[in-house]
Amino acid sequence: MKDFSNQITNRDESRDVEITDINTCVVEGNFEWNLITIETDAGVTGIGESYRGGGVHELVEYTKRFLIGENPLDVERLYRQIIQEMSGHGGTTGKVVTAASGIEIALWDAAGKLLDLPVYQLLGGKFRDEVRIYCDCHAGEAYAVEDGSTEYATAEAYSPEAYANEARRVVDMGFTALKFDLDLEMDNDPDPFNGRLTNGAIEHKREIVEAVREEIGYDVDLAFDCHWDYSVESAKRLAYKLREYDLMWLEDLIPPENMAAQTEVTKATKTPVATGENRFRVHELSELIYDHGVDIVTPDPTTVGGLKETMRIADRAEENYMPISPHNVCSPVGTMACVHLGAAIPNFDLLEYHALEVDWWDDLIDRDEPLIQDGYIEVPEKPGIGVELDEDVVEAHTLEGTTTF
């Protein structure tokens, strides 16, 4: 087995640093945000974030067995060490890669602080001073997520008027791009299992899209997310029906496993198609990119393997003249890590923001002004990812039954 442990014998004393501890904390926002800290013997703490949900804490705890004592500046080597050491735990995909993603982000933050450089500089430099944000919106009280299930609201929440009203409200906040969920409870009628949409369900979706377009016009970029719900034929029919509305994209039309089926859907429509958030590491996205099975690739950096792994995906997308717009449902920590990524990638387009309903989102970090200003986040010049946690807010919102840092 490859040995990615420290083999380095020649390093300047000023950079001879060791990891002394790794900790996790689950903050209960609109999702369960998995925050990670890496302590060093230089007095520097790196912070990162893994994708939401259970299982991450235990996996991060396991990495202490081989990461304590390692040098946090060797970010790439340590990421590969995690994948190798935990390959027998399903480490080439799934939750192990998710845990590794958050650790990798915390390592970049620690490295930036140790070297007195912002993370984007460590990733290769800057293409832009600010990153454009698209807001993920919900019409009215459209749904609530608790313990992984979707609870649909009353039918009024899904009226075209409800979507249009919310679109207007968000655009008036300064956002120039937004996205709505387009999968609805009526999609399950008459059969909740086969993924086939009735003509009535497709027509209702068309009416929603039309109402939003009429309200906000065509100068605002508009996307819709379908959450992997539909059969290939229904995905094609829906995309065809929406072609006249000049969408930024339709996202996750079909289940994520079958790349050939995804390619079939993408090539059958002129409506741009986006997917990628359920894939792990560059290997699971390369075929889709090279076969042009997607128009806009949307990996989640806190899922796919971290910032550098996302850059590998972006490189392949750039070879195929394809933009990348990362999926992001994070707290400000993961969001700011993605901002540095957006600064460093030439074919980067937009970054998702999915916490409009969390009125204390900005309070989680020690900052005087909101991160998002008129639909953009400025790329910070501070060392690391450029933000620090407000420990009191973290403690106030720590998931019940779990521990804080």
UniProtKB/TrEMBL annotation:
CDD domains to which the protein is assigned, alphabetical: MR_like
GO BP terms: amino acid catabolic process
One family name in Pfam for this protein: MR_MLE_N
GO terms for MF: xylonate dehydratase activity
Domain Mandelate racemase/muconate lactonizing enzyme C-terminal: 160-272
InterPro entries in alphabetical order: DgoD-like, Enolase-like_C_sf, Enolase-like_N, Enolase_C-like, Mandel_Rmase/mucon_lact_enz_CS, Mandelate_racemase_C, Mandelate_racemase_N_dom, Xylonate_dehydratase_2
Keyword presence, Cell membrane: no
Record's keyword terms, sorted: Lyase
Name of the protein in question: L-alanine-DL-glutamate epimerase
Organism (species): Natronorubrum texcoconense
